[in-house]
Amino acid sequence: MNLQQLKYVLAIYKEGSITKASHALFCAQPNVSSALKSLESELHIRIFDRTPNGVELTPQGEAFISYAANIMAQVEMLETIGREPEELPASLGISVSRASYCTQALSLWMNREIRPEQPLSLHFCETNTEKVIDQVFRAESDLGVIRIPAFYESYYGQLLANKNLCYTELMRFQMLLVMRRDHPLAEEADITPDRLRPYTEVVHGDHRNPSMTMARIDPLLHETPSRRIYVYDRGSQIDLLKTLPGAYMWASPIPEDILEEAGMLVRSSSMARVYNLDLLIRRKNSPETPLAKSFAAYLKEYADKLAKGRERMTSR
Questions:
Q1: Listing from the earlier edge strand, what are the strands of the sheet with 248-251?
Q2: 141-160: pLDDT as tens digits
Q3: Separation CA 201–CA 231 (nearest Å)
């Protein structure tokens, strides 16, 4: 087994087929196929199943890719030793599943922990839960934050373990309604489904399955709002909530200063019966860099403070 073989296999996984991998690597397809076949023969495993649409990882392949991604990430770090400048850029990759407090925590952490003159290469990706897991699994990100209904914890715990990932609970919460301070329902004692019906819900477009969306609030609510706008970034979400009269959104606890700046408030609702979990995930067998360890500790501390202040934030 050699590094070139690992590089080829990771490219096959990333591209989804041997043909696409050979194009991405600028090498002949037979060479890529031969490297994969030789590696599978040497290790006595089958990494991929061939399908009409490309390749899919086998259970053995899942474990192999996890280790291979870690190895190549460490090789890249070794290759930077001795290069100019003398102080190498600190590197950190973070993927999160739609949580505004993570963005603010990152800014505050950088202000506290990163020297202004320190070289830094930081990648922050906001996406959905499935992609967060995949990016951490493939070592594209050092840390990830996923959001799941609490009753799925066992399922996701096993899924993460199968991918050689571990997790720490950041926050346990019930979803809150976010709306403008002058929203017609802002002063309601309790906001029920029938009261929300005339208004437009803003929903993240990467969760188009209505049952999954409602599962974060109450699995018994089968009727979805008749007026929905699907968005794919947090900036569009805030703009719509600010400018569209009556718009609302279900969200996790949000820092007070973000709400104040946007002219928003959060309200609890008896219809939000399900507890959700924000989980911080990382690779089990990958050495944790001081930067990743520092941010993980700060994010946990910040999430704890935000959760404790939730009642005060939701008061009218």
A1: 228-231, 201-204, 248-251, 176-180, 264-267
A2: 999 999 999 999 999 999 99
A3: 11
The CA distances from residue 227 to 71, 216, 232, in Å, are: 48, 19, 17
Residue 216's nearest CA partner among 248, 263, 174 is: 174
Render pLDDT for 180-197 as a digit per residue (tens, 0 to 9).
999 999 999 899 888 998
Distance of CA 292 to the CA centre of its chain: 15
Query: CA 44, CA 4: separation in Å to the nearest integer?
Result: 18
Whether 144 contacts 136, CB under 8 Å: yes
- Tokens 């477009």: give the residue: 205
3 state DSSP class of 178: strand
Residue 26 reports pLDDT greater than 60: yes
Residue 229 makes CB contacts below 8 A (sequence gap 6+) with 200, 201, 202, 203, 240, 244, 247
3-class DSSP assignment, residue 166: strand
CB neighbour list of residue 47: distance below 8 Å, 6 or more residues apart? 9, 36, 39, 40, 57, 58, 60, 61, 64, 65
